[in-house]
């Protein structure tokens, strides 16, 4: 009998497996497709690789002369999707090979096949019954598919980063940061891009202040947005290179599906409770209604971020071992790989209002930061929300080229329940982008130095 059997090898599953192996638990991981799951193989990693290629291409075209670089013929520049994909594939292979090595190094048995849960302590896969003291469901999620009868028109997430001819008119469907990321990447490659948003707003979970900044950026980049347009099928709405949505006629050669993802729930002979949105319902320790069966990552609907899935997986392993911790999702950063990047942690301003805090906002712009000016990356800000009585930091929001890295400093402040006085007294090296934290801290306490 295994101490732990994990269904799914994405960031939630494989990190939990490695942690379990390190703690001496006899562990197996069941994977029906490829090690690393969506994130490593066709999600987080390849999308960031392509985004970096697009950003470099865009910057060479826009900024080379301004930075004193002559001799570049902008008319001769073109984006080579095939070469960018080849680079991305190499990164993916390196990382997935590394994960497989770590699983084996820590004594994790890898079982290929599709799992079915038989009871609270047994699973079947490939006509083999596996007994386990604990079961962890880490099967992830996928976007609802768009029905389509035209070959090559709709590209689902799993096929997004493949070698193909990239046409001129691209439509992205979705409301998540992934949809915006794709739209901006294609736009920077010189394509004409439209976004169909199934809901009335973008970026679930993001503070409305960040959302509005991103909307302004998309408008500036001439990316057209159509709200409340949940494209479920191309039948009857697509003809002659155009999507006819309501009163809008949208040029369209290809559609990328980046809709908000839904849980992939494994087959089961026992009643594992789902919430109203079809995710597996869990308690504060990610345990389902069935004792000793846990659900982590996308499948429980608490978050769609890989690092939060990993944190949940490690929390469950510690819980199994009797280590008591509080899983506070508000202390985990939310990263959005837009241009510029956006990140936040803690409470949003609306949540702060709803909870009745007496609060203040201190903000410092990147345009007043010396390092940002030298790099030519002046878009963005750091925004600290703190309560007035003691100055405790309630939330932090950042827009900057490296916001997804910078938010880690805010995470440390939140974990230690730091105040704006602590931030103001933290000396930051000059010149660095991170100085904006200190400036925003001073702004909260009294006045920023360079503002």
Write a brief caption for the model.
This protein is of the alpha/beta class. It has helices at 11-22, 37-42, 44-63, 81-105, 177-188, 208-220, 306-320, 349-354, 370-375, 403-415, 420-425, 435-445, and strands at residues 4-7, 27-31, 109-112, 116-119, 122-125, 128-131, 135-137, 141-142, 154-155, 169-173, 192-196, 224-226, 238-239, 242-245, 248-251, 254-257, 262-263, 267-268, 293-295, 334-336, 341-346, 359-365, 381-387, 393-400.
Looking at the structure, the CATH topology of the largest domain is FAD/NAD(P)-binding domain
Return the CATH class of the largest domain. Alpha Beta
Instruction: Tell me the span between the first and last alpha carbons.
Output: 63 Å
The number of domains is 3
Which class of secondary structure composition applies to the elements?
A: alpha/beta
By CATH, the architecture of the largest domain is named 3-Layer(bba) Sandwich
Largest beta sheet: what is the strand line-up? 3-2-1-7-19
Strand content: 15-25%
Word description of this protein:
The protein is an alpha/beta fold and 451 residues long. It folds into 3 domains: 4-142 and 262-330, 3-Layer(bba) Sandwich (FAD/NAD(P)-binding domain); 154-257, FAD/NAD(P)-binding domain; 340-445, 2-Layer Sandwich (Enolase-like, domain 1), CATH 3.30.390. Helix content is 32%, strand content 22%. It has helices at 11-22, 37-42, 44-63, 81-105, 177-188, 208-220, 306-320, 349-354, 370-375, 403-415, 420-425, 435-445; strands at residues 4-7, 27-31, 109-112, 116-119, 122-125, 128-131, 135-137, 141-142, 154-155, 169-173, 192-196, 224-226, 238-239, 242-245, 248-251, 254-257, 262-263, 267-268, 293-295, 334-336, 341-346, 359-365, 381-387, 393-400. The strands form 6 sheets. It has a 5-stranded parallel sheet with strand order 3-2-1-7-19, with helices on one face. Helix 1 packs parallel to helix 7 (306-320) and helix 3 runs antiparallel to helix 4. The longest helix is centred in the first third of the chain and has 25 residues, at 81-105.
């Amino acid at each position: 009998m295994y101490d732990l059997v994990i269904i799914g090898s994405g960031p939630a599953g494989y990190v939990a497996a490695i942690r379990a192996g390190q703690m001496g638990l006899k562990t197996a991981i069941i994977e029906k497709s490829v090690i690393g799951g969506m994130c490593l193989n066709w999600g987080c990693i390849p999308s960031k690789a392509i985004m970096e290629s697009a950003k470099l291409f865009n910057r060479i075209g826009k900024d080379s002369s301004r930075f004193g670089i002559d001799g570049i013929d902008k008319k001769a520049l073109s984006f080579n999707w095939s070469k960018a994909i080849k680079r991305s594939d190499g990164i993916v292979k390196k990382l997935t090979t590394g994960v497989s090595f770590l699983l084996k190094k820590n004594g994790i048995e890898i079982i290929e096949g599709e799992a079915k849960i038989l009871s609270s302590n047994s699973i079947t896969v490939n006509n083999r019954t596996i007994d386990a003291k604990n079961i962890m469901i880490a099967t992830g999620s996928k976007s609802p598919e768009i029905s389509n009868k035209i070959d090559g028109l709709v590209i689902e997430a799993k096929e997004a980063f493949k070698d193909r001819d990239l046409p001129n008119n691209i439509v992205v469907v979705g409301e998540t940061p992934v949809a915006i990321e794709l739209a901006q990447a294609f736009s920077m490659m010189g394509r004409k891009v439209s976004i169909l948003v199934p809901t009335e707003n973008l970026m679930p979970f993001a503070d409305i202040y960040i959302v509005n900044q991103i909307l302004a950026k998309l408008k500036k980049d001439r990316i057209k947005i159509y709200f409340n347009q949940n494209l479920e099928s191309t039948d009857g709405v697509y003809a002659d290179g155009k999507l006819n949505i309501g009163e809008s006629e949208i040029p369209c050669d290809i559609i990328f599906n980046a809709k908000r993802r839904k849980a992939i729930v494994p087959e089961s002979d026992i009643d594992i409770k789902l919430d109203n949105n079809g995710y597996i319902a869990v308690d504060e320790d990610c345990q389902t209604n069935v004792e000793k069966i846990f659900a982590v990552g996308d499948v429980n609907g608490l978050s769609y971020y890989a690092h939060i899935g990993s944190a949940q997986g490690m929390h469950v392993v510690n819980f199994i071992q009797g280590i008591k911790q509080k899983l506070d999702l508000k202390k985990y950063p939310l990263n959005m790989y837009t241009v510029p990047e956006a990140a936040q942690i803690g409470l949003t301003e609306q949540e702060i209002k709803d909870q009745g805090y007496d609060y203040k906002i201190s903000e410092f712009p990147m345009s007043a930061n010396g390092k940002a000016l030298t790099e030519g990356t002046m878009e963005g800000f750091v925004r600290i929300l703190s309560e007035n009585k003691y100055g405790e930091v309630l939330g932090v929001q950042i827009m900057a080229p490296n916001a997804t890295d910078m938010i880690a400093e805010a995470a440390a402040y939140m974990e230690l329940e730091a105040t704006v006085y602590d931030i103001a007294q933290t000396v930051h090296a000059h010149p660095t982008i991170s100085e904006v934290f200190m400036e925003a801290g001073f702004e909260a306490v009294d006045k920023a130095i360079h503002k």
